[in-house]
Amino acid sequence: MHSFVVSSFEPPHIRVFAGNAQRGGSKEETTKLCIAALEECADYAGRRGIFLGIENHGGIVAEPDDLLDIIRAVKSPWVGINLDSGNFHTDDPYRDFERCAPYAVNVQMKADIQRRGQKQEPADLPRLVKILREAKYQGYVALEYESEEDPWKAVPGLLKRMKDLFNT
Prior knowledge:
This protein is an alpha/beta fold.
């Protein structure tokens, strides 16, 4: 039996959004500015024991290659990914989640995913948990609920299901 263990002390993290290319600026220029800002902030945050988690939240980090390029360019152990399971609207969101999971400093799990050009569909929660286990992720997992169903009805069941999946 495997158990998903979270340590009694997790270093804090701050969620960071990369944004979009600015008017008149290119994606490349915006990416360079993002990397420079993360390097400066990582130095400051690292001295205080705080992780920076850049979220896969559209804009210049909508695609996993771009997000991973930024993380690798920063070269700081204090910068990782605030990995949101519902934010890759790519051809294969599970593959992209898996590629980014080793860099996760925090995970936000959603009940739905949306493949490129498709409608939302229920997320394969067991598959997402398996990906996190295989990546040896040891941080927090938060449920971020944005589905259509009434949250007062859906969230308790989702939380129980997630807890059961992580504790089996």
